[in-house]
């Protein structure tokens, strides 16, 4: 396993991050814990979750998995805050000081830990000034409950605004950004990745397989395979496009030539992009985890990059995934995720 710096920090994280959105949603507790154990055995030391995943159950399972054999001390643990945990509480969501501190305390309990290595804002909001949010996060760092802070789905201008506010008020700054980024939607390359590179932020792409499209299990004219895109649309009614299948078919062909799976090729491509620190994998089963882990052994050559760029040019969009991510409707049980 290769390890990379988490942005400008001295913390080393594995080049693949284990995402846990499926835990307690489509993956039972026993298999979820096995996924964590197998990932750690393979050298992954970076785990990402969120308080809203399955209404806190993902955090609880991660906490249980890490609470034995000293695992917690070896793991860089990331979680997120923003979405509502209690739909009946108007203050139980968002990025206010009140909610951030309350949510952090609750996450610490579920995760069975005294500190969170990377505490991330799940989405940007405009109803709270960024300095209030940063002040709350800074206080959590000074209290030793959080080590570093990051963002998810922040546009470049908001990243710059936050960095300016941190400097202006003498507060701890963000060290990472988590955009959605894959071969089918390279929107993040337009502004977010260059901004992250300019200011030394780690980039932690989510959806590197575009919800399973880049696994190759869906075929042009036959989208009946079980999964998020069964029937040709995902749970946000985003349709698969002909252009997307042009990319998918090239990924499948190149993977066959390289002797790997399409998933492994897509993940290896993602991890090889300038500025990317660690793509987030989100296996639903142990078998999917094993497949994803194989990506670390796939070498992406300049010729591979050039070939994939011909069907999926830099900054292009074959399927609207990045923009549609803004339409995510936060639900306590994540039924729409």
Notes on the structure:
The protein has 11 helices and 10 strands. It is of the alpha/beta class and 337 residues long. The strands form 2 sheets. It has an 8-stranded parallel beta sheet with strand order 9-8-7-6-5-4-3-10. The chain has a two-stranded antiparallel sheet with strand order 1-2. Strand 6, helix 5 and strand 7 form a beta-alpha-beta unit. Helix 1 runs parallel beside helix 10, helix 4 runs parallel beside helix 5 and helix 8 crosses helix 9. It is globular, with a radius of gyration of 19 Å. The relative contact order is 0.14. The C terminus is likely disordered.
Provide a brief overview of the structure.
This protein is of the alpha/beta class and 337 residues long. The protein is built from eleven helices and ten strands. It starts with a strand and ends in a 26-residue tail after the last helix.
Side by side, the strands of the main sheet go 9-8-7-6-5-4-3-10
Flag low-confidence runs: 331-337
Strand residue percentage: 5-15%
Sheet with most strands: 8 strands, parallel
What overall form do the CA principal axes indicate?
A: globular
- In CATH, the homologous superfamily goes by the name NADP-dependent oxidoreductase domain
Total E-strand runs: 10
Number of helices: 11
- Kindly report the CATH topology: TIM Barrel
Question: Keywords, please?
Answer:
337 residues, alpha/beta, TIM Barrel, 8-stranded parallel beta sheet, two-stranded antiparallel sheet, 11 helices, 10 strands, disordered C terminus
Write the layout of secondary structure elements.
Elements: E1 3-5, E2 12-14, E3 17-19, H1 29-41, E4 46-48, H2 57-66, H3 71-74, E5 76-81, H4 97-110, E6 116-121, H5 130-142, E7 146-152, H6 156-169, E8 174-178, H7 192-199, E9 202-203, H8 242-258, H9 262-271, E10 280-281, H10 286-293, H11 302-311
Parallel strand pairs: 3-4, 3-10, 4-5, 5-6, 6-7, 7-8, 8-9
Antiparallel strand pairs: 1-2
Helix pairs in contact: 1-2, 1-10, 4-5, 8-9
